[in-house]
Amino acid sequence: MTEALHGGGVTSVLTRWLTAPDQRVVSAKARRIGSGGGLLAAGAIAGLAAAAAGLMFLGALIGLAWIVEPAVGGSVVGPARLAAQAWLLGHGADVAAGGLLIAVTPLGLTASLVVCCWYAACWAGRRARVDCLAQVAVLLGSLVLTYTAIGTGLALIGSTSGAEIGLLSAVPGLVGLSSLAGAGGLLRTAGHGRLIHDAVGFPSRAVMAGVGAGAAVLLAAGAGTLGIAIAVDRAGFAALTDSLATGWSAGLGVFVLSLMLAPNAVLYAVAVLLGPGFAIGSGTTVSAFGVTLGLVPGLPLAAALPDRPAVPLGVLLGLVVPVLCGLVVGAVVARRLDDGVRPLHAAGWALAAALLLATGMGLAQWMAGGSLGEGGLATIGAPPVATMAAAAVLLGPAAALTAAALRRRHLRDR
What we know:
mainly alpha; 2 domains; four-stranded antiparallel beta sheet; three-stranded antiparallel beta sheet; 5% strand
C-alpha cells in the first residue's frame, strides 16, 4: 500500500513537472493575445477578413460575367471597381452612374455582408479569448475602424467620372453594419449575451422572444404574399425574365439581382398587409385601400404588382395577418414571463414588445426604400412612419389583450 501510494505520488509529481512548462506557455500566449495589442491586432484582422470576404463574393459573381462577356469591364480593373461599388451599395451608399442616382440598398446583399462581419467577429473573439466587456469593446473598436477605413478607401478609389460614390452616405452604413454584426458575434462568442439579459431590470428575454416571433410571422406572410402574387402572373414574370436574360450569363445576373432585391420586395408586401402600402415612383402605388398603376422598372419582381387598379380580395383578407401577429406576440410574451407576473403587467410587456416590433418594422422600411434618379422613380418603398404607426395600432391591442387573458388563465389554473 505504501509503495503504491509512493508510486502514485511520484507519478503525480512527474506529471505536474512535465506539464507545468506547457501550461505556462499557454498562459503567456493567452495573456499576450488578450492584451491591448493582441486585441487590436485580432480586431484589425477580423475587419480586413470581413471586408475581403464580401468583396471576394461579389468579385466572383462579377468576374464570372466578365470572363463570359469581357465587354462588362473591358479590363480586369473594370470588374474590380464594379465589385467595390456593389459592396458599398450594400452598405447604403449612393452611387451615381450614367447620370442616374442609385439610392436603393439591396437588402439581400446587406444580409450577406452582415454574415461576413458576424463570422469574422466570432473568429476574433475565439482567437483573442475575450472574457470581459472591456475586451469586447477594444476588439470591436478595432474591427469597426479597420472595416470603415477599408470602405472609405474603396469609396475614394472606386469613384470615377462614370460612377461616383457618395462618401457621406457610405460611412454611416459601414460603421453601423460592422458595429451591430461585430458586437453580436463578439457577445455570443464571449458568452455575455446572458449577462446582459440578467443585468437589465425588465423581462428582456420574454420581450425579445415576442418581437422575434412577431417579426417571423410578418416576414413569412410578406414572403407568402409576394410568392402568390408572382405565381398569379407567371406569364408576366417569364416575359420580363426572357427580355432581360438574353444569355445564360445575363440570366445569372438577373437571378442574382432579383435575389438581392427579394428582401426589399418582401418588406413592401408587409407594408401592404399593414395597410399603408408602398410606391414605385410617382405613378405606381399599391396599398390595401387602392392601387394606382404607372411605369415601373422592367425587373422580374415587377410581375408581382397587380395588373388592374383594383384592390384584390386577398389583400383585404391579408389585413387579418397583423392582428394574428399581435396574438402571437402576446402569447409568446405571456408564456415566457415568470409565474408571479400579474395580467396587467403582462399586458404592458406585450404592448412594449409590439411597439418595439413596430419600430423595427419602420426602420426596416426606411432601409428598404430609396430612389432611382430624380424623375418618376424618385420615391421607392413604403412610408416608414405610416408603416410604424399602422403596425403599432394593429399589433399593440391584440398583443396586450392576449397576454392579459393568458396570464389570467394561468393564475386561475395554478
